[in-house]
Write a structure and sequence with these properties.
InterPro entries: GIY-YIG_endonuc (IPR000305), GIY-YIG_endonuc_sf (IPR035901), UPF0213_domain (IPR050190)
Helix content: 25-40%
Family: Belongs to the UPF0213 family.
Strand content: 25-35%
CATH superfamily: GIY-YIG endonuclease
Distance between the termini: 24 Å
Number of domains: 1
CATH topology: GIY-YIG endonuclease
Number of helices: 4
CATH architecture: 3-Layer(aba) Sandwich
Number of strands: 3
Shape: globular
Largest sheet: 3 strands, antiparallel
Order of helices and strands: EEHHEHH
Radius of gyration: 12 Å
Protein name: Excinuclease ABC, C subunit, N-terminal
Length: 86
């Protein structure tokens, strides 16, 4: 049985929203906070984890990530409100 993948969303200190995927949300968020997560969060430090959602595999998580990254900032905020709390 494969491990589930998670789509997660982070609010950055400048108000922007970062979206990513991982198999371990807590470890990935900690990496972002330490400045080792992603280039974007090194220049836009995380403020808080908005939440996450579970996907059965990497492919479906990646597709969801792509779909969300196409949304406007307001649409991302609304979507983040539907996620499971981080």
């Amino acid at each position: 049985m494969t491990k589930p993948w998670f789509l997660y969303m982070i609010e950055c200190v400048d108000g922007s929203i970062y979206t990513g995927i991982t198999v371990d949300v807590d470890a990935r968020y900690a990496a972002h906070c330490q400045g080792t997560g992603a280039r974007y969060t090194r220049s836009h430090p995380p403020l808080r984890l908005l939440g996450h959602e579970t996907h059965p595999d990497r492919s479906s998580a990646s597709k969801a990530e792509y779909r969300i990254k196409q949304l406007s900032a307001a649409e991302k905020q609304r979507y983040a409100a539907t996620l499971q709390a981080g």
